[in-house]
């Protein structure tokens, strides 16, 4: 994970990055800040574990939360865009998902995770399905979010 985080920080040299995390509970931020010098890129994050925080802090529209549910691509994209605006950074990544023990009212099973990305050019989100126990799912989500940054940020 340290190598992946170093790669992300190098890829974003000269830019700033923020995170909006739900099911990963700050794991992306923790992984990034384990790398010396991370503060040159990583500015901070919001742990938005509840819909109320997604709405009040990140600006995710309640209508979107109600229509699609917290674990959805529209919400992940809105979270990334919201934290990017809040932190006034160049790049943002978000994670919202179900690490267990149960699914949600929208039919998403445990292991469903949506990851959002936002920069000045675009906002996008991808839906993933991870397997394993709660910790496995969270670790896979962290890795996928970091990989998405590398894939999209140029």
Describe the protein's architecture and organization.
The chain is α/β, with parallel strands linked by helices. Helices cover about 40% and strands about 20% of the residues. The protein has six helices and five strands. It has a five-stranded mixed β-sheet. The longest helix is centred in the last third of the chain and has 19 residues.
Descriptive key words:
154 residues, alpha/beta, 21% strand
Task: Offer a concise description of the structure.
The chain has 6 helices and 5 strands; from the N terminus they run H-E-H-E-H-H-H-E-E-E-H. The chain has helices spanning 2-11, 27-33, 51-56, 62-68, 73-87, 134-152; strands spanning 17-21, 42-47, 91-97, 112-118, 123-129.
Topology (SSEs and partners):
Elements: H1 2-11, E1 17-21, H2 27-33, E2 42-47, H3 51-56, H4 62-68, H5 73-87, E3 91-97, E4 112-118, E5 123-129, H6 134-152
Parallel strand pairs: 1-2, 1-3
Antiparallel strand pairs: 3-4, 4-5
**What is the 3D shape?**
globular
Strand fraction? 15-25%
User: pLDDT under 50 segments (min length 5)?
Assistant: none
Q: Structural class of the helix and strand makeup?
A: alpha/beta
């Amino acid at each position: 994970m340290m190598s992946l985080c170093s790669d992300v920080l190098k890829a974003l040299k000269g830019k700033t990055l923020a995170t909006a995390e739900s099911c990963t509970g700050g794991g992306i931020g923790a992984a990034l800040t384990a790398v010396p010098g991370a503060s040159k890129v990583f500015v901070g994050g919001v742990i938005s574990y509840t819909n109320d925080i997604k709405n009040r802090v990140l600006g995710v529209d309640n209508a979107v939360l109600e229509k699609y549910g917290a674990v959805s691509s529209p919400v992940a994209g809105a979270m990334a865009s919201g934290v990017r605006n809040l932190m006034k950074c160049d790049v943002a990544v978000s994670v919202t998902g179900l690490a267990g023990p149960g699914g949600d009212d929208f039919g998403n099973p445990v292991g469903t995770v949506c990851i959002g990305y936002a920069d000045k050019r675009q906002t996008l989100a991808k839906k993933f399905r991870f397997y394993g126990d709660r910790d496995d799912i969270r670790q896979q989500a962290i890795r996928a979010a970091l990989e998405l940054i590398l894939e999209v940020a140029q």
